[in-house]
Design a protein that fits this description.
Blueprint lengths: L2 H11 L9 H9 L7 H11 L4 H10 L3 H12 L10 H4 L4 H14 L7 H4 L8 H13 L5 H8 L5 H15 L6 H16 L10 E6 L4 H7 L3 E6 L1 H12 L10 E8 L2 E5 L15 H15 L1 E7 L6 E7 L2 E7 L30 H4 L2 H14 L7 H8 L12 E2 L2 E5 L1 H6 L9
Antiparallel strand pairs: 1-4, 1-5, 2-9, 3-4, 3-8, 3-9, 5-6, 6-7
Helix pairs in contact: 1-2, 1-3, 2-3, 3-5, 4-5, 4-7, 7-9, 9-11, 10-11
Amino acid sequence: MNDTCTAGAAAGGAGRADGARVVDPLLGMLTDEDSPVPWTEAAAMLRRLGEPALMPLARTIANARTPTAARRAEWAFSGLDVPSAGAYAPALAHAHPRVREAAAHALQRRGPDALPAAGLLLPLLADPDEGVRASAKWALTDSGPGVLPLLRAARRGRAPAGVRAVLLELLAAVGGPAALDARDAAAVRRLIRIRARDEVPEPMHLCGPWFALSTDDMGAVLDAFGLSGAERVTMRLGASAWRQDQHASTPHARCSRVYVSPVLDGWTLVFGTATGEPHPPGGEPPGLVVRPRCAELSRRFGAAHWYGVCCADEWSAWCLAEGGEVVRYYDAAHPEQTVGVPHPAEPAGALPHEAGDSFAGIDALVTGAFLASYEAVARDLGIAAPRTAAFVAGGASVNPLALGPRTRVEGGASLALTECGRASGHPPGALRI
């Protein structure tokens, strides 16, 4: 019988207290990079041993001679079968930052079951090591709404200013705006007003749909989309909310709120669901709803555009309507639904579905500075540019990828609730201000 089987039999037949005697042989197998025995077998046995292996693994992480040995020990440590989250207290207070980070990560894996040990994580928010601080934040966030009273009490205590700011971020991340008390909510609004005054537009990460309306009437835009509860925000916060919501998996995250930009070079941009409706029919091409929606909006605002891109693939789409009529519609996923002749805003060249994956992800990957330079060079040299949605938006209205100091800004940005959001509230999550 080999060493692994011998140690495994001892670990399997012993109680947790007696199992401590096989920890050292298993640790040797775990960290021996030349061993013919798979290290995962030793790691799995250590995990089953649970608490008797906890501090020995912590010492192994702290004293590992190679990065590989440290990573193996961390993997075993993160999944220990430990009944009580409080057992991690010594590791959370360990002198080595890698052990403290590993202990916080282990608690994060426990989710709400780590709540009894949440108080042990609070000191790590002021840890000198960035990785430890980040792991403590993730663990507190994943412990669920039950941690909110602890976070509120800590914020009202004598925590340093930097930690108090992190606690405010955690409150928003766990419970959303509703988790903030009146004083904290007022502080956030005050900070938004201050930062919004001189904010310079920044290129946005594009992944999802947005509308562009030829208007400076914010009230009319909110009314056209059935929005209410509009809160003044910075452009950075609005873009952060849209990006977070588009990639969220929580119920109603994508349909609860809409980011409405300031007037940018004469256009108001509306970032939200694929059709501007909280719950469009599922499984159908967006064009069935987008085209009549754009036509309706253009009757009210003169010109109404809809654009869509995906940061994960080459999907790109646009709909351009003027005076109540759709003059151009294109969807790379459904080219058979194309309406109208190429718009003057579309550079010459292949449409996305015809270009293969040559320009896949270009809307999401290029920076505003690169895009501006590319467009200028392309114009000067007569080079055909790909007809992706961001490029089309740059010629027909406003390209969110190319926002910058030269963009003319009028009015302010808002984050508003849809009909769905009025029932479910803002999605949880901390946003950039």
